């Protein structure tokens, strides 16, 4: 990053520069591209209030880097603009997703986690894109981010015109819904800023109403401690008993709030090979997944975001889902195989599940 106040290089046409950046972004596989400034004071206040209420659960890293998250120029000195980019991951399988949720013997995995981990794919493409911009458009100092540092990505995406922050806290593009990943390039080049996206949720509350655990406690206000995505992915301890029955068969994340969003009728299906479902995770049976030992889990989840949560949480989550499944000899037999598991966490959830079937 350049230490002095940055200026555009002599002879550089700002409009043409932005036009070229958008074209390069499309060539690198990004469907959305916009440029935001670095003033996030309003969002910083919103974040501070959310943190102050303890709604982040055990995600201590959220509190630890709270202010830095809303101050790009402090995270990377010299930053004056952020190029925000979106990559679609929609499978256009809403009917199949609802069918899985309605079948208590099947496992529901959040659509974003069905394939390979998006972090590495996007980071590599962002790095190549930024290097090409620096070589072809104008020399610049930069750093790319994909959930890899304290970045307020949705606020930046909104300010870059990629979409508005919906009542469920996801970013929504009126032309493409909310099924897309976000990535950022922090730069020291003062390019023209895009118009922030305006909100179009109106009076709709479908996402709030459908949430199985009522984790969306107000528009744009999520209580992570009640969120199934948090409980099944981020939370490393016991899932609170009052939450277990509400989780249903969701073993990794939750998409209900996006599945009901009317704007997702405009979502575009992606043909990105890395995002295609692996290991039949879009239709797998609970008892089948519960049978994976740690070696098989590590093998099957290689390159998947699921691996980061680990085998212990995998079994914990599936035990809860099996506890919510209809009672059958097959379900009880599957749970019984883990009664003496090395992990006290797993054993606790297996015992709870067996009790739901009168077999504790």
UniProtKB/TrEMBL annotation:
HAMAP family: QueG (MF_00916). GO terms for molecular function: 4 iron, 4 sulfur cluster binding; cobalamin binding; epoxyqueuosine reductase activity; metal ion binding. InterPro entries: 4Fe4S_Fe-S-bd (IPR017896), 4Fe4S_Fe_S_CS (IPR017900), QueG (IPR004453), QueG_DUF1730 (IPR013542). The gene is queG. Belongs to the QueG family. Residues 189-221 form the 4Fe-4S ferredoxin-type domain. Cob(II)alamin binds at residues 69, 147, 171, 182, 229, 254-255. Monomer. One of its GO terms (cellular component) is cytoplasm. The keyword Oxidoreductase applies. Keywords: 4Fe-4S, Cobalamin, Cobalt, Cytoplasm, Iron, Iron-sulfur, Metal-binding, Oxidoreductase, Queuosine biosynthesis, tRNA processing. This is Epoxyqueuosine reductase. The keyword Transit peptide does not apply. Its main location: cytoplasm. Pfam families: Fer4_16, QueG_DUF1730. It is an enzyme of class 1 (oxidoreductase). [4Fe-4S] cluster 2 binds at residues 211, 227, 254, 257. [4Fe-4S] cluster 1 binds at residues 201, 204, 207, 261. GO terms for biological process: tRNA queuosine(34) biosynthetic process. It catalyses: epoxyqueuosine(34) in tRNA + AH2 = queuosine(34) in tRNA + A + H2O. The active site is at residue 147. It is found in: Cytoplasm. Catalyzes the conversion of epoxyqueuosine (oQ) to queuosine (Q), which is a hypermodified base found in the wobble positions of tRNA(Asp), tRNA(Asn), tRNA(His) and tRNA(Tyr). Pathway: tRNA modification; tRNA-queuosine biosynthesis. Binds 2 [4Fe-4S] clusters per monomer. It comes from the Bacteria.
